[in-house]
Each structure stands twice: as structure tokens, then as C-alpha cells.
UniProtKB/TrEMBL annotation, chain A:
<dbReference type="GO" id="GO:0046653">
    <property type="term" value="P:tetrahydrofolate metabolic process"/>
</dbReference>
<dbReference type="InterPro" id="IPR006279">
    <property type="entry name" value="SoxD"/>
</dbReference>
<dbReference type="GO" id="GO:0008115">
    <property type="term" value="F:sarcosine oxidase activity"/>
</dbReference>
<protein>
    <submittedName>
        <fullName>Sarcosine oxidase subunit delta</fullName>
    </submittedName>
</protein>
<dbReference type="Pfam" id="PF04267">
    <property type="entry name" value="SoxD"/>
</dbReference>
<dbReference type="InterPro" id="IPR038561">
    <property type="entry name" value="SoxD_sf"/>
</dbReference>
TrEMBL record, chain B:
<dbReference type="InterPro" id="IPR027266">
    <property type="entry name" value="TrmE/GcvT-like"/>
</dbReference>
<feature type="domain" description="SoxA A3">
    <location>
        <begin position="516"/>
        <end position="598"/>
    </location>
</feature>
<dbReference type="InterPro" id="IPR013977">
    <property type="entry name" value="GcvT_C"/>
</dbReference>
<keyword id="KW-0560">Oxidoreductase</keyword>
<dbReference type="InterPro" id="IPR006277">
    <property type="entry name" value="Sarcosine_oxidase_asu"/>
</dbReference>
<feature type="domain" description="GCVT N-terminal">
    <location>
        <begin position="617"/>
        <end position="884"/>
    </location>
</feature>
<dbReference type="InterPro" id="IPR041117">
    <property type="entry name" value="SoxA_A3"/>
</dbReference>
<dbReference type="Pfam" id="PF07992">
    <property type="entry name" value="Pyr_redox_2"/>
</dbReference>
<dbReference type="Pfam" id="PF01571">
    <property type="entry name" value="GCV_T"/>
</dbReference>
Length: 99, 997
């Protein structure tokens, strides 16, 4: 069972307290009616499905109930970092992020 | 005294006899025996029959890797366990055990005909043979052949035992209580680390228990061991025996299965049989040691053929000689020490046959002292003996040529093909393996977890090395935990270091098709099978494994994987690391389902949610049905009524007078805040801005893909407060979805969401008399038709309790839903029952609720919809706020697929014969005479007998269904085609006259 750091509770807790919530940094368009069918399809269904560091959303559903973002390596299944919803997508090439 | 027991020797209690039975015969053993050691003490090697060929087999190990000696054990009703390893099961008073996989007696197994027919059962036999004719599947293959090949029989009774589960947090978990593990635990404990040490056997000590001659720090091995364990206990180390580390999971979570009662004579009251521990360790030391490999030669599976290390264990731990005349055949020095120890104990060592030409001088000298003949550079080409080995044929090998045979008479053949590190747990972590060319074995490579590997588990041999390496691992773990330590050294006398060689199958002078050299004893896989698999095109070791089933039995290839790889890599013509080892997976040893289930069985399998009114339903004979985690009253049978009669009575009573229904399970969410109405506008399809406080509306919730996710009546209590109801099963999902949008898409909205499902008890009153029942109980609001029209909500008091009173209807009748704080739910229900008595008030359950709503064409989300149904498909186009700029799912309603023709639409279905009720889920076709496979145009979603209408009714999703109204469709069923007419879903009171009371 994985351990996950909740950026709101600032605690590292067992995976059973959390729920996965899909890929991160896919914002709902301001005005969906302006999108073409193809653009809307891409928003709804097209996901990156990466091998390696994956930006994704989790919810501390049996804790503070907040949604937050995480970077998880889909090969090792390790969480590289977690951060609050709304914070910018971290640049993984920086030394701090590599920590 | 048993013939093969040496008085006073071993760690068994010679003065404590234990009786048990094997295949119905009583035997006597000693306290501390395993079933295997006790039977061996009586000279019994034959303990089972093999999986495929029914060949006679005896124990080949003395530990949990045992592939052959599998038995069924029993201690009375329900407490039968198949496939237990006789080498692991401790003796207990009255233990009943039986051999497995035999037709008739163990010594004369009719199934052994398979062995004579072995050319018919080559590798991939299942894939080649069980293909055709198809009809043979049911009549021959499954019932006859599958039964003939197999393990023990599964128990048929419910397991009466309890199983427990616990969590454990520890600084350091040491797996394996041999010398390396004990040294690691000592070192870390002395540094102040919180340590847990586990071992799968009943006793800590590992190989030291089988090597009492060794001296550590001036003490005899067993004295040193006792002192070390005392020190560990004194330092607060948690010592867990009979505890197997079954799996190594992410971030140092290790699953431990602790066996608590299988070794006890009598079962303590209420004691759990096993306990599953979920351990989170900051650091882990794996000190699991190494597994001895068999040699692969013709007849290597005969009873009496055993690993040399096992024979040494039987001698020293259990005081049992495995035979009177032993031949040793080995490629590793360790077997020589076993030979010397056995010779000391009085077993005649006929010869030590070593595959190596060059041997250590000390070993030769020791053999000479004991008068043991040494045959260096020899191979084994066969064994003889029907139920026990009686002789072995050995041949010299020179320059790859196998020379003339020589027959050696013996009653046991002790083999050693060297040792392979036990890599199972390390492999669970996805740690990489590294091929060591010098020892021709895999060693642990790159680690993925915070762990250390010590001793024979990483290829070291000899006690000094194991102890020193364990201490270093313990010190390293302590340092990683912030303690400063320098590992202590050890002085070891009479150490037994050694080296060896690795082999594929041994060279032979037999014609290849006449060689039966077993690699996987448990699955009856021979070296020839592996080579055949490669010839037939299997190149990957994973394919070879599955084709031959090598390593796929309950022993998980503990003995067979490495030998299998050596042979496969030779056949493929690549080096072993290029062929690679198959992945080891948890559990390390077979683990009971009970241990995994733990407390989650029966009433505690999962939570049961009960409403505040559940006690009434229970007391009034309700039949219950599960709805998500809730248990809900399904119907209330009276005087021997069946379900159909009860539901018909409940329906008619409600439409004719008044029915009462416990709707407390409805999901309830309070949406509050200055931006509540804006939030509702964005979440639900309907417009909310103009809904006045005190009014309700039926709301539809879509996913962003445009499909219906949930529905429910929503009341506006004030400008900034909505009382949202959801489906019973959808409550948590809807709140999650709302929170998701609120937290991540619209954090600017000032809204609070609160689940109130369990705060309110909800009682629905339906029927023309509903208002009369309620009248005298309501304070603070006028409930007349004029003052409180359909789809209203008011805060008031009902029966003296603070209440939210809704006027709404899920039945088509005049209806009210009374919400009171949950603790008053039962009192409210009783007050309403009392007030309704003069009006014949009738409690009804979920089935009647379903029938009444279907008569009105009201949908149940998840029954009449399936996640691909749009509001328009369901006939709910009217519920869409077309003028709203946006809501969740709005853009998708214009997706090309959702506006295209041919979508399935919800319609009513009336069978031509009203007495025939359609089956829910039945497929619908337009032309029943078309060729198969027919074009299916939809399916039945809801179907009931309607007492009100005196006939059956149904709803269905049908392609272009609304345009087919009036047409006849066909529902092919096993006993004939049912004809039905497509209708509106409004079966009863289509104009809603009955609401206008």
C-alpha cells in the first residue's frame, strides 16, 4: 500500500484514505460552447497515459476531503511530489523538483 | 521407540509422545515433530502421489519449499485443510491426516496408469489435447481427466475458525530468524532500534538448528542461539515465530501471516486460527537464506531421494535418520557435511558421488577417516525401487563421455545441486536480479525499497560470513535510522564454508526418450518437457513456464525455477541472464483465504446501514433487500402472502387510501451560501434562479459527457439554501462530483456542501388520504391544496418534531415526504401509523415503490439508464434549462453522436398477453424470423405486474423508440418469442389528475 502526502493536512498517510481523480491540469474550458466538436472531444476523453512521471489528481476523501495534485511515476508507482489544487504545474527538471 | 529415531537427539521432546493418524493408521510421534519427521521416524517415506503421473513420492525437503509431501489435515467438522505440507505441519494430539491424489491405496494407486502412459502427456498436453471435440469438454475432460490430475480436495463445509488482522509499525523488520537475521536484529537492537524479527518455523535459529557442531564466540551453536534470543527478548525485540512474510509491498509494507492454533492439541475458546499482520517498517532486512536445489537425473523423484540438507535437518532437529544406507550425490560441499553427520549417527554412507572432478583435500581427508568411498567426476543415470529407492546407478564422466555404470544399493539417496538465494520477497519489490557467473546464480541487484539483504540470501556461505553480514545489515539499518554503530565481529569455530557447481540435467547414457528427470516435482515437469517447449517455439522463459507449468504449483517454483532456467537457457542457446527468471509473486507460501479475509466475513463482511425506522420493519415481518450498503424493507408480507400478493395489496392500498414508506436512505445534500443558486445552475440541467423559496423542482444531473448521472427532487428553503436529494446509491458519488467542481473549477463560488443523508429520517405518505393522516400532526404551516400545492417545501413541526415537509410524489398520488431529525424517525413513523389507522394506512416497501413509479413512467437512474442515456433519450428533455449559458454536460448534448438518429429511447412496453411479464434485461428484436445472430434494437429495463392496471407493464430502451409507438416488437426468450406493443411510459393517470387533490 502506498503512502501519500496530503498537502493540506501536511501528513503522509496510507493510500486507503485517498481516492484517485484522473489526470491533473485539464481545466474545464471557460465557455464550452465555443469549442469545436474535436476540441470538446479532446477535453472529455483524450488523456496522456504516460509511462513515467504523471500529473494526476487525488482526493483525501477519508481525511480533509480536499482535492490536490500529485506527480506519480507510473513505472515505479512512487509519488514524486504532491501540491495543492490551483498551484502551477511544477517543472520536474529543476533540482528542487528532482528532490 | 520408532526404528529411525535416535534416542535423546534433536530438539524434540523425547518424553512427550503425541499420537496422530495417517491414512487411517495410528502413529506415535514426539512433541516438536512435524508430520514428515514423525513418519520418517517410522521409516515411512511414501507420503503422496504426484500431480499428473501419480508417481509415488516422499518428502524431498524439511521445510516450506516441499513439493511432494502434501497432505490433507483435519480436526473435525469444517476444519479440513488440503495441500498442507507434511514438512511444515506440526504434530498435535489426535491430528488426522491423509495422503492426496490417489485412486485407491497410497501404495497401489490406480491413477499410476498415467505414469505408464506418460508419452501421451507431454508439455503443453492440455493445449494440444483438450481442444476437440467440443462435446468432450463437459463429458470427459472436465469431470474425468481434470479430477485424475490434481491436488487435495477442497473442503465443502463452512470454515468455523476465526481469522484476525492487525497493523504493526516498526523501525526495523527482520525477515528470517537464521544466523544472519539474528545477528542483524542483535546489532540494531543494541543500537536502540525498535526491531521485529519473524520466522516461518516454530523456532528461531534457521540453519543453526541443523548444525549444532558449529561454535560461535566460544559457545556451542545452540547455547549461543539461546543466549542471543534471551538478549533480543530483554532488549524488547518482538520475536514472531510461525509467522511467514508472504508479500513485500510498496514502501516497506510487508504482509505477515501468523499461524496461531494449527499446532495446538486443543483449540482455545474463541482464539483466531491465523492472524494477518500489515507491517509498515522504516527499514527491512531480508535474511531468508538460500534454498537447496535438487539435481536433475532419471528417477530423482523416488521416495527416499531427498535433499542432503533436509536429511541433515531431520537428523539434528528431529533426531531422525532418514535411512540406514545412504548414497550422497552432490555438486556442492555442503552435502559432504550432511554425509559426515549421518555417518556419525550410524547411517552407512555407501558413497559420496560428486559431479566435480576436483575436490577439496580436507573433504577427501574427512571422508577417508570415516571410510567413505568417494566417486569424483561422476553422474547419476538412474534409480530403482517401486515405492522407495533401492539402488542408484552411477557412471564416471570423462571429457563429456559417460562411462560404464555401477549400481549402488541404498535406502536413501541424498542430493544437493547447490543453493540458490531465496529471492522471492526481494522480487516482490521489483528489485532487479543480477547474474553471478562465478556461482552461476541470481543475486539481488538494484533495490527499490529501503531494505538490506544479508547472508545466504545474497549468495554468502558459511556461518562466519552469514553472522558478519547480518550484523553489517543490522548496523546499516540502524545508521539509516540515525543511530551510530559499528558492527561487532564474531569468532566461529567448526564453520562449514563451501562452494559448488550449478548444473542443467546431469549427463546420462540413457536414450533421451527414456529419461524421466524431474525439474518441478509438484507439477510433474521433466527436463525433456522443458526442451520440448523450446523446440515447439517457446523462447521467453515466461512462455516456457506457462507451456510446461514449470514453477506454477503451490511451491511457486522454490525448487524448480533455477534448474528450469538452466535447462531452458541451454535449449535456447543463450546465457541464463539473457533468458531471465520468471517473476515471483506473493504469497511466498500458500496462505488461507481466511487469513486474507480476516474479520470481513458474515455479518462483518461489510457495514450494513440501517435507517432509524429499521426496527419497525424488523418487528413487522418485512423482507429486506440490500440497496448499496443499506438494508431496506422490500415488502411487508401478511398472513403467508408471497411477494407478488404482498406487493399487489400494498399498491392497491396506496392508490385507494394511503401508504407509508421509509425513504430515509435517499441521499441528501445541503447546498448553502450566497452563490448556492449559481452553483445549482451550473451543476444541474434545470434553471434554479426563478425557483422561489418554498418550492421544489425535479433536478437532473449529467456527467460532463452529457449522460444522466443522478436525479432527485430539490427544494429551495431560502435564497441561499437548497435541500438536494439524490438516489440512494448515488449520494456519495454526487457529493464527490459537486465537491470536485466546487474545489477545483469554481473555487470562487461561496458555497458549502454538507451531506445530511444520515441526519434526516424521511417518511413518505402517498395516496388520496395522505393529507387527512397528516392534518392533525402538522403545526406551523397550512397543508391545504391551495396553500401547499404540489412541489412545495416548508419548515414546520410534524408530530411535535422540527420538520422539513415536502409535498411531492413518486407514485402519482397525493404525496408528502416528512423529514425529521434522524433520532425522531421512529417516533414520527409511529405517530403517522397511529394517525393513519382510521384510514387503513399500509406500510409498503421498495418493491411497491418501484411498481407505483413505473406505472407513472418515472425512471430509476441506474435501472432505466445505464450511463449512456441522455435526458432526451429518457424523455426528460423538458428538464433542460435551454436558456442557461452552461451547465455540466451541456456542451456534450450537442456532440455529433448524441444528436444523431437511431439513439435508444425509453418507451413503455405492453405484452400482447397481459398475464406475461417480460424479464428485465431481455433483448428486443424487430423481426423474430431473421437469421441469427439477430439485430437487437434494445432491452427491457423495468418490468412489473401492475395490480392497479390488472396486467404487466414494462419499460425499455429501444432504437428510435418514441417513433415506434404503436408498433409491435419481439422479445425472444428460451421458451418462445413474446410479442409486445411499444407505448408511452405513462401507464396510469397520464394527465396527472390524481395529484390535484
Amino acid at each position: 500500500m502506498l503512502l501519500i502526502h496530503c498537502p493540506y493536512c501536511d501528513q503522509t498517510l496510507p493510500e486507503a484514505e485517498f481516492a484517485y481523480a484522473g489526470e491533473a491540469h485539464i481545466a474545464r474550458p471557460e465557455d464550452p460552447s465555443q469549442l469545436s466538436d474535436e476540441e470538446w472531444r479532446d477535453f472529455l476523453f483524450i488523456r496522456s497515459n504516460l509511462k513515467g512521471p504523471h500529473f494526476e489528481r487525488w482526493r483525501h476523501v477519508h481525511g480533509c476531503a480536499r482535492f490536490f495534485n500529485a506527480v506519480r511515476d507510473t513505472v515505479s508507482d512512487r509519488f514524486l511530489l504532491t501540491y495543492r489544487a490551483g498551484e502551477p504545474r511544477p517543472d520536474l527538471s529543476t533540482p528542487e523538483a528532482a528532490q | 521407540m520408532s526404528q529411525f529415531r535416535i534416542p535423546g537427539k534433536g530438539r524434540v521432546k523425547h518424553d512427550e509422545k503425541v499420537t496422530f493418524s495417517f491414512d487411517g493408521r495410528r502413529y506415535e510421534g514426539l512433541r516438536g515433530d512435524t508430520v514428515a519427521s514423525a513418519l520418517l521416524a517410522h521409516g515411512i517415506h511414501l507420503m503422496g502421489r504426484s500431480f499428473k503421473y501419480h508417481r509415488p513420492r516422499g518428502p524431498v525437503t524439511a521445510d516450506s519449499a516441499e513439493p511432494n509431501a502434501l497432505i490433507g489435515t483435519s480436526r473435525g467438522a469444517g476444519r479440513f485443510e488440503p495441500n498442507t505440507r507434511a514438512t511444515v505441519q506440526e504434530l498435535r494430539e489426535g491430528l488426522m491426516c491423509e495422503s492426496q491424489n490417489r485412486l485407491g491405496a497410497l501404495s497401489f494407486d490406480l491413477g499410476a496408469v498415467n505414469d505408464a502412459l506418460h508419452p501421451l502427456f507431454p508439455a503443453g498436453f492440455y493445449y494440444k489435447t483438450f481442444m476437440w471435440p467440443r462435446s468432450f469438454w463437459d463429458r470427459l475432460y472436465e469431470p474425468v481427466i481434470r479430477r485424475a490430475a490434481g491436488l487435495g480436495r477442497a473442503p465443502s463445509e463452512v470454515d468455523p475458525d476465526r481469522y484476525a488482522s492487525r497493523y504493526l509499525h516498526t523501525d526495523l523488520l527482520v525477515v528470517g530468524g537464521g544466523p544472519a537475521g539474528i545477528a542483524a536484529a542483535l546489532e540494531a537492537a543494541r543500537a536502540g532500534v525498535r526491531v521485529t524479527l519473524v520466522d516461518e518455523t516454530p523456532e528461531m535459529g534457521g540453519s543453526l538448528l541443523s548444525d549444532p557442531e558449529v561454535e560461535i564466540d566460544g559457545q556451542a551453536a545452540w547455547d549461543w542461539l539461546a543466549a542471543a534470543l534471551d538478549e533480543l527478548r530483554a532488549r524488547g525485540v518482538r520475536l514472531m515465530t510461525r509467522t511467514t512474510a508472504i508479500g513485500y509491498y510498496h514502501q516497506n509494507m510487508i504482509g505477515l501471516c501468523e499461524k496461531l492454533t494449527d499446532h495446538l492439541d486443543t483449540l482455545p475458546e474463541n482464539a483466531p486460527r491465523e492472524r494477518m499482520w500489515r507491517v509498515r517498517a522504516t527499514r527491512v532486512v531480508l535474511a531468508q537464506g538460500a534454498l537447496e536445489k535438487p539435481l536433475v537425473f532419471h528417477g530423482n523423484d523416488r521416495p527416499g531421494v531427498m535433499l542432503a540438507g533436509a536429511a541433515q535437518s531431520y537428523l539434528h532437529r528431529w533426531g531422525v535418520k532418514v535411512g540406514e544406507r545412504a548414497v550422497i550425490v552432490t555438486s556442492h560441499d555442503s552435502a559432504w557435511h550432511a554425509a559426515f553427520d549421518l555417518a556419525e549417527a550410524g547411517t552407512k554412507i555407501v558413497a559420496i558421488v560428486d559431479t566435480r572432478a576436483a575436490l577439496a583435500d580436507e573433504l577427501r581427508a574427512e571422508a577417508r577417516v570415516r571410510g567413505i568411498e568417494v566417486l569424483a567426476g561422476h553422474t547419476v543415470t538412474g534409480t530403482r525401487g517401486r515405492l522407495r529407492v533401492a539402488s542408484v546407478t552411477v557412471n564416471p564422466v570423462e571429457n563429456g563421455r559417460v562411462g560404464d555404470p555401477r549400481m549402488l544399493h541404498c535406502d536413501c539417496l541424498l542430493m544437493s545441486g547447490g543453493w540458490t538465494p531465496s529471492l522471492h520477497l526481494f522480487s516482490h519489490t521489483k528489485g532487479s536480479l543480477q547474474w553471478d557467473e562465478a556461482s552461476r546464480t541470481f543475486l539481488p541487484g538494484r533495490m527499490t525499497e529501503d531494505c538490506h539483504i544479508a547472508g545466504a540470501g545474497r549468495g554468502l556461505w558459511g556461518y562466519l560470513d552469514a553472522l558478519s553480514d547480518g550484523a553489517e545489515a543490522g548496523a546499516a539499518a540502524a545508521r539509516a535510522l540515525g543511530h551510530a554503530v559499528e558492527p561487532t565481529g564474531f569468532a566461529v569455530a567448526h564453520d562449514r564454508p563451501g562452494t559448488g557447481e550449478s548444473h542443467k540435467e546431469l549427463p546420462t547414457d540413457r536414450r533421451s526418450h527414456r529419461v524421466r528427470a524431474f525439474v518441478d516435482f509438484q507439477n510433474d515437469v521433466t527436463a525433456k518437457d522443458l526442451r520440448l517447449a523450446v523446440r515447439e517455439g517457446m523462447r521467453s522463459i515466461e512462455h516456457v513456464k506457462r507451456y510446461t507449468t514449470n514453477g506454477m504449483a503451490t511451491d511457486q517454483g522454490k525448487m524448480s525455477n533455477i534448474n528450469g532456467l538452466m535447462i531452458a537457457s541451454d535449449a535456447v542457446g543463450k546465457a541464463p541472464p539473457e533468458v531471465g527468471l520468471t517473476t515471483f509473486r506473493p504469497p511466498y507460501t500458500p496462505t488461507s483465504f481466511g487469513a486474507f479475509a480476516g474479520y470481513k466475513r458474515g455479518a462483518t463482511f461489510e457495514v450494513t446501514r440501517a435507517t432509524p425506522i429499521d426496527a419497525f420493519a424488523e418487528a413487522n415481518g418485512a423482507v429486506f433487500e440490500p440497496v448499496s450498503l443499506w438494508r431496506r424493507a422490500w415488502y411487508f408480507p401478511q398472513g403467508g402472502e408471497d411477494m407478488e400478493a404482498a406487493v399487489a395489496r400494498e399498491c392497491l392500498a396506496t392508490r385507494g387510501g394511503v401508504g407509508i414508506f421509509d425513504a430515509s436512505t435517499l441521499g441528501k445534500i445541503e447546498v448553502a451560501g450566497p452563490d448556492a443558486v449559481e452553483f445549482m445552475n451550473r451543476m444541474y440541467t434545470n434553471p434554479w434562479t426563478k425557483l422561489a423559496p418554498g418550492r421544489c423542482r425535479y433536478g437532473v444531473l449529467l456527467g460532463e459527457d452529457g449522460y444522466i448521472r443522478d436525479d432527485g427532487v430539490i427544494g429551495r428553503l431560502s435564497d441561499d439554501l437548497f435541500h438536494v436529494t439524490t438516489t440512494t446509491g448515488g449520494a456519495a458519488r454526487v457529493l464527490n462530483m459537486m465537491e470536485d467542481y466546487l474545489q477545483t473549477e469554481w473555487p470562487d463560488l461561496d458555497v458549502w456542501l454538507t451531506s445530511t443523508t444520515e441526519q434526516w429520517a424521511t417518511v413518505a405518505l402517498n395516496g388520496p388520504k395522505a393529507r387527512e393522516v397528516l392534518d392533525g400532526l402538522v403545526e406551523g404551516v397550512d397543508i391545504s391544496a391551495e396553500a401547499m400545492p404540489h412541489m412545495s417545501v416548508a419548515e414546520c413541526r410534524v408530530a411535535g418534531f422540527r420538520a422539513r415537509l415536502f409535498r411531492l410524489s413518486f407514485t402519482g398520488e397525493l404525496g408528502f415526504e416528512v423529514n425529521v431529525p434522524a433520532r425522531h424517525g421512529l417516533a414520527l413513523w409511529e405517530a403517522l401509523m397511529e394517525a393513519g389507522k382510521p384510514h387503513g394506512i399500509t406500510p409498503y416497501g421498495t418493491e411497491t415503490m418501484h411498481v407505483l413509479r413505473a406505472e407513472k413512467g418515472f425512471i430509476i437512474v441506474g435501472q432505466d439508464t445505464d450511463g449512456t442515456v441522455t435526458p432526451d433519450d429518457a424523455g426528460l428533455g423538458w428538464a433542460i434549462g435551454k436558456k442557461k449559458p452552461d451547465f455540466v454536460g451541456k456542451r456534450s448534448l450537442a456532440r455529433p453522436d448524441l444528436v444523431a438518429g437511431g439513439r435508444k429511447q425509453l418507451v413503455g412496453l405492453m405484452t400482447e398477453d397481459g398475464a406475461v411479464k417480460l424479464e428485465e434485461g431481455a433483448q428486443i428484436v424487430l423481426d423474430p424470423d431473421q437469421p441469427k445472430p439477430m439485430k437487437m434494437v434494445g432491452h427491457v429495463t423495468s418490468s412489473y405486474r401492475s395490480a392497479t392496471l390488472g396486467r404487466s407493464i414494462a419499460m425499455a430502451l429501444i432504437e428510435d423508440g418514441r417513433a415506434r409507438e404503436g408498433e409491435t416488437v419481439h422479445v425472444p426468450m428460451p421458451d418462445g418469442v413474446v410479442r409486445a406493443k411499444v407505448t408511452s411510459t405513462m401507464f396510469y393517470d397520464p394527465d396527472g389528475e390524481r395529484l390535484k387533490l
